[in-house]
Design a protein that fits this description.
Elements (H helix, E strand, L loop, with lengths): L1 E9 L3 H12 L4 E4 L4 H5 L25 H8 L12 H15 L8 E7 L2 E6 L4 E9 L21 E3 L13 E5 L3 H12 L3 E5 L18 H6 L9 H8 L1 H6 L2 H10 L10 H4 L4 E3 L3 E8 L2 E8 L2 E7 L1 E4 L15 H6 L2 E2 L2 E2 L12 E3 L5 H4 L9 H20 L35
Parallel strand pairs: 1-2, 1-5, 5-16, 6-13, 7-8, 7-13, 8-9
Antiparallel strand pairs: 3-4, 4-5, 10-11, 11-12, 14-15
Length: about 425
């Protein structure tokens, strides 16, 4: 089968669904492929809560008519803008209902290949269908970008795994499990493993586990709001600038952008998980992994800290080590297309309209963070993305539709752009409120 569409969206998480809702409202010709909320369903552990507050955990449509708050009201689910953690199952159910109401045309098929064609792009689906598109938006989320430290790569999966592989931890009942990491993924899993009957320890390089502070009384006092304004990324002026100025961020020097994406809003568990782990789970801070050995059905870890080194025997190691954007991990991209995409730190160089160096190919979500800042690492960034991208695609379609109209001048690319394939290293946060 062969078919065509002006625009194709790959991915049906918060970013893909929000963009589709905006395009649908503008009566644009598009198709969207993917399984709704796939990453959240398959790669987040059952029973966890989002770090994002309720008001920052919504999906986006032009009328803002179907928010998480409205969904919870309809279903009789407790909700608060701030101070009441959003359960994962609530967020998944909301995302599915958002799709049913606002993006009913979602096609639950997987794109297995994407390549150039004479007039745009050719996509092949898992059912053999071939689709032609003039423009493609890749909203593939973080599911492709799991990061394992080199020391753990290549080890048997029954002994070493990434945190994203465990949407259920029930199989670890009675087992000894070592979790590596200091962020939300690590501590959430530690609490869930403990509840499941496992013996758990956490190994973290950080000198301390920086739990988020619990929210204070609402509404916040005026001086607190002045010192640290509240945003969808949490309180603080830095987060305020990230939320309000993604286009300004785009104009900043490359080294500055990379440093901010790497450092701001690093690993930090939610305030609500602290009570479940502190005093209940062995937590080893200022500790680094020096050596790993597999001995029969056990894993031996050599852990170093300021007091010296010691060996730990464990049944399983879970690396809650986050995600790193790497275009080469998008296996559906053809090698030819891969080679054409200008990149920096393995992330695509994007225009102010999310367009890559390959005309008509767009990237959103974590892959866009080096261009637009930490906002794009979080579901909250889907609002800015959907609004801006929909306007751009609508204008582009209008120019094509009007005979004799001029093709718009491409918007400026990254300043100080790196050559094709340049690699430095930037990590997307393992924050549980992120994802696209």
């Amino acid at each position: 089968m062969k078919d065509s569409a002006d625009i194709v969206i790959i991915g049906a998480g918060p970013y893909g669904l929000s963009i589709a809702a905006y395009l649908k409202a503008r009566n644009m010709d598009f198709r969207i492929f993917g399984s709704p909320m796939h990453t959240w369903i398959n790669q987040m552990p059952e029973g966890m809560c989002l770090k994002s507050d309720g008001f920052a955990s919504t999906l986006y449509d032009p009328d803002t008519g179907f928010t998480l708050e409205r969904f919870c009201q309809e279903k009789g689910i407790p909700y608060a803008d701030v101070g009441l953690p959003v359960r994962l199952d609530t967020f998944i159910s909301y995302g599915r209902e958002f799709q049913n109401r606002l993006v009913p045309q979602l096609e639950q098929r997987t794109v297995v290949s994407l390549d150039r064609s004479d007039s745009g792009f050719t996509l092949q689906l898992d059912n053999g269908e071939v689709v032609f598109a003039r423009k493609v938006v890749i909203a593939a989320g973080i599911s492709h970008f799991q990061y394992l430290p080199p020391m753990l790569c290549g080890l048997p999966q029954e002994r070493v795994s990434h945190s994203s592989q465990h949407n259920s931890v029930s199989r670890f009942q009675g087992k000894d499990v070592t979790v590596i990491g200091a962020g939300a993924s690590a501590l959430d899993l530690a609490a869930l493993l403990k509840n499941a009957g496992a013996t758990v320890r956490v190994i973290a390089r950080a000198p301390e586990i920086r739990f988020h502070n619990p929210p204070g009384p609402q509404p916040r006092p005026f001086m607190d709001r002045m010192r640290a304004p509240m945003t969808g990324l949490g309180p603080g002026w830095r987060s305020f600038l990230c939320v309000k100025g993604p286009l300004l961020f785009h104009k900043m020097p490359l080294a500055f952008r990379l440093k901010v994406v790497r450092k701001h809003l690093g690993p930090a568990p939610g305030w609500f998980i602290k009570e479940a782990v502190v005093g209940h789970v062995e937590i080893n801070v200022s500790s680094t992994l020096e050596e790993v050995q597999i001995q029969q059905d056990r894993v031996r870890l050599c852990i170093a800290n300021p007091s010296g080194s010691r060996w730990i025997d464990t049944d399983h190691v879970i690396a809650a080590t986050g995600y790193k954007v790497d275009l080469q991990r998008l296996s559906f991209l053809s090698s030819g297309l891969q080679s054409e995409i200008r990149s920096v730190e393995q992330a695509p160089v994007l225009s102010t309209s999310f367009e890559s160096s390959v005309k008509g190919l767009y990237f959103v979500g974590a892959a866009a963070a080096p261009s637009f800042g930490p906002l794009l690492r979080f579901a909250y960034g889907a609002g800015f993305t959907a609004r801006r991208l929909a306007r751009h695609l609508s204008r582009s379609a209008a120019h094509l539709a009007i005979p004799g109209s001029k093709v718009p001048t491409p918007e400026p690319q990254f300043s100080h752009a790196a050559p094709v394939g340049a690699s430095v290293e930037v990590a997307a946060s393992s924050d549980r409120s992120g994802g696209s």
